[in-house]
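the two lines:
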Amino acid sequence: MDQSGNVQHSQPYNKRRGKQSIQFENPVYINASASIVGKKEGEGPLADLFDMVGEDDLFGCNTWEEAESSLQKDAVYLAMGKAKLDSGNVQYLFAGDLLGQSMATSFGMTAYEIPLFGLYGACSTCGESLSLGAMAVDGGFASCVVCVTSSHFASAEKEFRYPLEYGSQRPLSASWTVTGSGAFVLGSTRGENVQAAITGITTGKIVDYGLKDSMNMGCCMAPAACDVIYRNFIDFGRQPEDYDRIITGDLGSVGQRALIDLLAEKGYDISGNHMDCGMEIYDAAKQDTHAGGSGCGCAAVTLAAYVLKQLQEKRWKRVLFVPTGALLSKTSFNEGKTVPGIAHGVVIENI
Amino acid sequence: MDQSGNVQHSQPYNKRRGKQSIQFENPVYINASASIVGKKEGEGPLADLFDMVGEDDLFGCNTWEEAESSLQKDAVYLAMGKAKLDSGNVQYLFAGDLLGQSMATSFGMTAYEIPLFGLYGACSTCGESLSLGAMAVDGGFASCVVCVTSSHFASAEKEFRYPLEYGSQRPLSASWTVTGSGAFVLGSTRGENVQAAITGITTGKIVDYGLKDSMNMGCCMAPAACDVIYRNFIDFGRQPEDYDRIITGDLGSVGQRALIDLLAEKGYDISGNHMDCGMEIYDAAKQDTHAGGSGCGCAAVTLAAYVLKQLQEKRWKRVLFVPTGALLSKTSFNEGKTVPGIAHGVVIENI
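prediction for all of em together
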């Protein structure tokens, strides 16, 4: 407050940092998280860390889309349970997925009867949901919100590419859509099982380098990731080493090289502490996933199952979590459009 | 602040009203708005009020999707111009459309290089964007944001129904997707051409009555509209007559009857002051639009071209603006799913 006793938070420059970032006035606590994945993810390097692994990818449903809805529903249920909350305690849901008209969210969230903000940022949606959820909490609009995103290999292949039955060949630059959903309970007060806190965000703009190869989404998204990470360094006056890890969502092995090169051109070397969720979730050689995992489930389940545990157990102090999205659709692909990228940065710390 | 001098805004109950609503601490000013529509809308009852009317629905582009992107781009450009701003002054874009993976937004907003939050709430997206945009401003995260949504008859028919060339017959309960885009400049300070202010919001949850008729979306959405309007009355302790108009997005003539009946069952009569944007934008009899207009462009252009002018010119004091969305996709329709609805309420006043 100022001398006249007026609350100053309605003056934006209090919270804004530089051109694209926000430093929250109070830490927004991640009081619980949950991750559910499919069979293939359950056979990968992070297998033991997920809360639930499906025996098959239908999860007892009749269609791939219903299966993805049930992933979201169950992830939210598990996360609320860990935080000892029920849907009556949650004031907003911030949710999204990759399907046309966000159908996994629409049919997965209905039963909770919680006011919902539907989001679409392709595979960056996890970062978008955490950003808006944290703004809702820090802005004094909610004491508790849940953020959830999902993807499903089969529903995504059907949505973006070819029916699985075609057995299409995939180039080595292609990624494998993660079957999974991650949910996060954010609160204004510290929960007893608090995992970490969101202290700031750097919100991305659409970046289009004119690339059109939907089988190399890592390179399509790398410029957007570079832009957000660079802005985060500038806006907060930080260097790569101020983060224990700089964690992109699903650039994969090809996109990672592009990102490291692009940031090197701007004078920043993140080769020592960059991590990509898509490269962590599968053993690319053994599991034939080529460049790595992708999908808004990829960053979400890796954050919930692996990253937050490192922060909670104090192995890491601060990370920059940067889910990355490739903005394309079947129609835009068929009309020969480019594949622009977007990324959303979230600063997460152990406190 | 409390006696200890602590700023209390981080305690949610300051701003929250009831279960689903927010009363903003300061009015969020709508400092400018713009509307662009297609040929058919330019021949309707609101023709003279739109900022721009296309000579044809391609707007000089090669595809319907590119045309919709250009609608969004031009609407934002016009709105920023009226507010004497350029993209450097705008801290966030809150944008969305009806297309799979929100392609109209992805290709329409790239050039502005403004941090973007992509949204999906079907035809309720205009209300969702104004709600989140107002939260960003009132929460102290931005001094200026732009909210934009669009729809296009031809791109929507292709996305949800059949190629236009099929000449499919449409039942009288069907609506006609509006070709248009509306953009709104929200600010924490009062602009010289301020039109009105957002003073509160009531955020909707997904409501599914089990209806499956995608050619009668008005009835699919009416329960969600009823729920939000009812919650708004309860949360703010208001009666229908506290609003000069209660304005739904695109229920059309069939959905309007359902909404009025549903609210009557809850003891509220809105028959005297209910207005539906879908019924205002076309002359249904002369223009063969059956139940009325729909699409996220419908509520957006009607708000920009008509509703805000009534508030700015003090003919109305306060309205409850409730864009309504039907949550379906080609896939969900083909898989025999229901059509749940969602609606987002925004309280707009002349001040």
